[in-house]
Amino acid sequence: MKSTKSPSTADPAASESAPALALHTGSSDPRQLIIRNLRQSGIYIALVVIVALFAIRTDGVSLSPGNITNIVLQYSYILVLAIGMVIVIVGGHIDLSVGSVVALTGAVSAVLVIQQGHPWWVGVLAALAVGIAVGAWHGFWVAYAGIPAFIVTLAGMLLFRGLTLRVLDNISLSPFPAEYQRIAAGFLNGLLGGDGFDAFTLFIGAFAVAGYAVSGFRTRVARIRYQQAVESFPLFVARVLLVGAVIMYFAWQLAHARGLPIVLVILAVLVLVYGLLTRRTVFGRQVYAIGGNLPAAMLSGVKVRTVNFWIFVNMGFLSAVAGIIYSSRSNGAQPAAGNMFELDAIAAAFIGGAAVTGGVGTVVGAMVGGLIMAVMSNGMQLMNVDQSLQSVVKGLVLLVAVAFDVYNKRRAGTSR
User: Would you say residue 313 has pLDDT above 60?
Assistant: First the structure.
């Protein structure tokens, strides 16, 4: 009997040579590489410029250990919302209700834990259940009733804000027990010792750098195997070293403040999980297919209704996570909680490279977009910039980001 070989083993020499090729294959022209992927490169450059600008204008205060910790604590819930929002936008939808869902889930948790005296984890589970139920409600109307997401979630914004007022009876509830407060205000400190710094935080930072380097090298090998363009190996090493230096500086500052924030661990887990979900799973590829070309996705056999339904269930779940973090951070629940959060999450996704028409966007890009918004807000607060001017600046940044997306699309169309 004649044996057959699978494509993966048909050419062992080619397979074995891919890692070797990764050491020297690729373009060494930095300008060419930046232009080739201008939309993603632009946001990283913008983040570096904004961080440097505020570091200069605040005499280094913005990069102090205490302030970096505060940025993580103050804007973590927006970053959580941005993860879900970028998936919604990639699928070709929008969700205007997430701020109201944040308020409702925090209110439910507060009533159970503060008012009725249940254990803190009961409040967490109840908030997650409410968020998933809200997501299923939105998903049903969008996926199965065929109502545009803009209308459904606009109605949800009003509906769930009203329910928040009813649940709280128009009053604020506080304080939460210490265990609940630790979700957003607690730190992992002293697990590995350290003289004047937290060694565990530095260990996690080094682990993150190693993971980034290994993941980047594997991606590089895969692209070379499929004959895709990559940067030269020296530039790849330079990029890894630069990102590694930034991560270790960030970890060093946290280690010299109060250690590793628990909420940062939660956020890191979510970024890793959803990064894999969007890039390595069938569901993730189907979301991109629906947002990029809906008729083609339907002809390819994608169950569009099912995927759209779970997109909004996921958004409800992440809104509940953000609601738990926000209520823990504020140590209570307020009727006006979550106001305008949806706009911050949408801005983070678009600034991070998501396309207005859907089909384009990444979780990492949304995180960078959220960090740009966070650094700008924090920097302007340190400079005592008037609140009205802060809103003007944020609006202009969002407008420029979307205009940049439109410009890139037009340039791509004329270059074909």
Answer: yes
